[in-house]
Amino acid sequence: MRLEMGHIYIKDIQFASESKIEDGILYVSEEAVKAVALEDEKIKSVSFDIAKPGESVRITPVKDVIEPRVKVEGRGGIFPGVISKVDTVGEGKTYALKGMAVVTAGRIVGFQEGIIDMTGPGADYTPFSKTLNLVMVCEPVDGIKQHDYEKAVRFAGFRVAAYIGELARDLTPDETKVYETCTIKEGLEKYPELPRVAYVQMLQSQGLLHDTYVYGVDAKKIVPTILSPTEVMDGAIVSGNCVHLNNPVVEDLFEQHGKTLNFVCHIITNENVYLADKQRSSDWTAKLCKMLDLDGAIVSQEGFGNPDTDLIMNCKKIEAEGVKTVIITDEYAGRDGKSQ
Fold first, then answer.
1. Pick from 142, 138, 150: which is nearest to 110 by CA?
2. What count of other Cβ atoms lies within 10 Å of the Cβ of residue 195?
3. pLDDT tens by residue, 320-340
4. In the predicted structure, residue 240 carries a pLDDT above the cut 60
5. Which of 58, 156, 204, 249 could anchor a disulfide with 37, C-beta 3.0 to 4.6 Å?
6. Which residue out of 242, 265, 289, 315 is catalytically annotated?
7. Are 64 and 70 a contacting pair, CB within 8 Å?
8. Residue 152 CB: number of other CB atoms within 10 A?
9. 310 vs 193, 283, 338, CA distance in Å?
C-alpha cells in the first residue's frame, strides 16, 4: 500500500460565521459544528471553546483528542466503519491538520478520564498543551447509561473532526510524506538481507473507558489480525484513551524500512479480561508471527495491571516461535522503583 500524507499546519483557531481555512487560520462556525455534534439524540447539548498554548486553562475531564483529517484520493474515507463506509483504507492521499486537535469533554464517567493544562507544570506532561484545541463539552440526555454516553460523545468528536478535516480537501499541503509497504513476496525479493520485523499492537478492550474500535467493531470481539500500517493513519483504529492516528512506533518503523529492517506489517491484538480470551489471542498472535516468518517483533501495551498478563503471554509465545521481541510499556516502577 502507498499513502501520501499531506500536512497542513494550523496557526490559529477563531470562531466565525463561516467555517473555512485561510492562510493557516481555521475559522469555525459554532452553529455548524453544534449541528454536527447534536446529530446523536443521546447528546442533549454541546458548547464549544478554544484553548491555546500558554493560556491559563485546564481542560477536564478529557475524553478524547482527535486530529482532523480528510481522505482526498483513494478508497474509503476517514474513520471507516464509524464515520465513513466500511472500506479498507490506507492508500491514496490523506490530509491532516497539524498543530490543532478536537478535544471532547463532558460529565465525568470514570476516574481514568484526563486533564490537559495549557500552561504551568502540568503542561509538561501532555503534548496537547502545545496544540490549538477546539474543545467540545457535551451534556447527555437524562437517564442515559454510562457506556451509551461515552460512545455518543466519542463518536460526536469523530464527526466534528471529520467536518473540520473536510475544510482542507482543496488546500495544498505545507509538506507531504509518502508511506509505502510491500507485499510479503515483494519484501522478500527487495530486502533479502534485512530482518523481517512487525509491530504487534495490543489494543485496550476491557469495557468502559477501555474500548477500542477497529473499522467500527469493538476490539473485544476481534481475533488478532494483520493490517497495513498505513490503515491507522486513516483512522481504522479509534479509541478514547490511547493514541492511534499518530503512532510513533509506526512512524519510526517506516523511517527504518528498507534501511535497517523490512517493516512487514502491523499485527493488532486485544487485551482481554478472561483467561481463556487471553490464551486465544496470544496463541493467534504468535501463530501470525510464525506464519509471516518474522525475525523480530515490537510489542506495545496500552494500560497496565490486568493487561500485563496479555503482554507477557504474547511475548513468551512469540519468542517460543523463534522471533525476537522488544516490549514497549508504561514506566510504572512505583515510588521505591521495585514494582514490575
1. 150
2. 13
3. 999 999 999 877 667 777 766
4. no
5. 156
6. 242
7. no
8. 20
9. 32, 11, 21
